[in-house]
Write a sequence for this structure.
């Protein structure tokens, strides 16, 4: 099973750390059964595999969900002293693993450690009658881990230890295709450290820098740098808070996640009107941008294929760069803590991240922060 990311154009050809794609994204949650149900019914993922007591996993369970090229693993533990329970206690439900699909785990792991990565866990092999998978882990920001996954000798569903399992309901795909980018929030002053980590350890290139002049409202500011791997298919923007009059959304995240972590996962669709229409009718709540946003948006972005009224009805945002335009929208937080959320994005040529929408978006987030009493 192969998970490839993004259709953005390659950025360079001097790849010094080969990554074949994102293998999976793992969430540590308090109740994996219910969370897995939510991602199936609300977002249209299919259950494909499971591990738990029934398969011999006595301490924790994991549900593997798939939609097109996106694979999520949702895990929770049964006892308070388990690593997953500690993580949930500290961070609430959140992203623990951004797994990278590699050709040779031991070789990639050694290279990463030589270049300064910290070990999360040493390489080990798991096997069953379908073959073997080699795993190793390196640490990134906060408690987040990049698991390296070598699966060229495996034919089964997901990994040894899991059994195939299908959704019990007829859930319809919402048209989510692949992970476009995964954003991390880090503490003030730490953005450059992590940009350097991706450059030096994983051979990523710095793609874009946004400073607090690009990303600020009257009250709050943040800075962001986007790094991308050798093929350009994997993009990790890193945010840090900047000094503003009030508490920024990054500060709020860091407070409630209790440290750095994954802020949002941007998922691409080929038909954002259809996808967001379906997600809304499935009960997903999105950030609200006032109608005035649409008064001058066409002046700013020029001609688009979609009917503006349709976009306005669903509150979808538009931005343009030199390569084309993009349509995007952001969910509200996916759990009770104001931490991780999704972005739904449709790229129509544009390779950027919606800079023209930053102000409207951050004002929308500030309105939510204010309601939560965290501004
Ligand atoms: Fe994004």
């Amino acid at each position: 099973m192969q998970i490839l990311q993004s259709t953005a154009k390659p950025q360079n050809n001097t790849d010094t750390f080969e990554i074949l794609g994102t293998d999976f994204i793992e969430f540590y949650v308090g109740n994996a059964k219910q969370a897995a149900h939510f991602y199936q019914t609300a977002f249209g993922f299919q259950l494909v595999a499971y591990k738990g007591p029934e398969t011999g996993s006595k301490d924790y369970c994991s549900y593997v969900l798939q939609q097109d090229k996106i694979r999520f693993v949702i895990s929770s533990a049964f006892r308070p002293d388990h690593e997953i329970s500690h993580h949930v206690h500290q961070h609430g439900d959140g992203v623990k693993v951004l797994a990278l699909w590699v050709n040779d785990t031991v070789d990639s792991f050694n290279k990463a450690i030589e270049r300064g990565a910290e070990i999360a866990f040493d390489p080990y092999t798991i096997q069953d009658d379908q073959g073997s998978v080699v795993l190793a882990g390196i640490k990134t920001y906060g408690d987040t881990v990049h698991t390296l996954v070598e699966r060229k000798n495996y034919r089964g569903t997901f990994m040894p230890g899991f059994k195939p399992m299908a959704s019990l309901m007829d859930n319809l795909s919402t048209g989510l295709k692949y992970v476009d980018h995964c954003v991390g929030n880090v503490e003030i002053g730490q953005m450059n450290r992590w940009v350097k980590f991706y450059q030096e350890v994983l051979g990523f290139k710095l793609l874009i820098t946004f400073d607090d002049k690009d990303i600020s409202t009257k009250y709050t500011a943040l800075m962001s740098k986007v790094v991308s791997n050798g093929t350009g298919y994997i993009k990790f923007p890193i945010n840090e808070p900047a000094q503003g009059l009030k508490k920024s959304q990054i500060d709020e995240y860091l407070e409630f996640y209790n440290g750095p972590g994954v802020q949002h996962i941007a998922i691409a669709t080929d038909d954002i009107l259809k996808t967001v229409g379906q997600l809304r009718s499935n009960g997903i709540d999105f950030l609200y941008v006032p109608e005035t946003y649409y008064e001058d948006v066409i002046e700013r972005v020029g001609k688009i294929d979609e009917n503006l009224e349709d976009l306005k009805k669903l509150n979808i945002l538009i931005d343009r760069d030199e390569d084309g335009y993009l349509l995007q929208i952001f969910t509200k937080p996916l759990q009770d803590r104001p931490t991780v959320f999704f972005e739904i994005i449709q790229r129509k040529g544009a390779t950027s991240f919606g800079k023209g929408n930053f102000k409207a978006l951050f004002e929308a987030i500030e309105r939510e922060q204010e309601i939560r009493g965290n501004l």
Observations:
- Residues 181, 183, 264, 266, 343, 353 surround fe (ii) ion (CB under 6 Å).
